[in-house]
Amino acid sequence: MSTTAAFFYGTLMHPKILKKIIENDGSHLQICQAVLLNFTRHEIKFEDYPGLTASDLEKLDEWEDAEYERQKVVVHPLEDLVYLPDYEMPTIKPSALPSDSDLPGAVEVETYVYTDLSNLNADVWNFDDFVDKNAWKWYDPERAFTATDGPSEGV
């Protein structure tokens, strides 16, 4: 089975949301925190957001749709890989990034880059704020939700 390494920098950083989108428990995935240099993540106007199998990628491509372009990038893992079902989201702020010379080795991955720059706010998107205020909208089982239409207010 062919697999692809990916880097997520927005809503898909949340394990519950990632599992919902790929429509499986992610037990075949290993994840860790990583840094992508020379990129920033910004809020999208009026929105909450900013080793995969071919099936996972297909679902992610549908989810990200035409607003995003899948690109190969290089990231630096900041910790050891763990399997997704065993991953616990950090509860403390990460320490400062190491200097460029102290960064761990680079890994080529794919990520989704938002393409409509006119639709971005100047504000940088904050994952902690997203988790505190909006993540529940994306994975709450009481709400109607599919990979192609995103969260809704329920039926």
UniProtKB/TrEMBL annotation:
<dbReference type="InterPro" id="IPR045038">
    <property type="entry name" value="AIG2-like"/>
</dbReference>
<dbReference type="InterPro" id="IPR013024">
    <property type="entry name" value="GGCT-like"/>
</dbReference>
<protein>
    <submittedName>
        <fullName>Uncharacterized protein</fullName>
    </submittedName>
</protein>
<comment type="similarity">
    <text>Belongs to the gamma-glutamylcyclotransferase family.</text>
</comment>
<dbReference type="InterPro" id="IPR036568">
    <property type="entry name" value="GGCT-like_sf"/>
</dbReference>
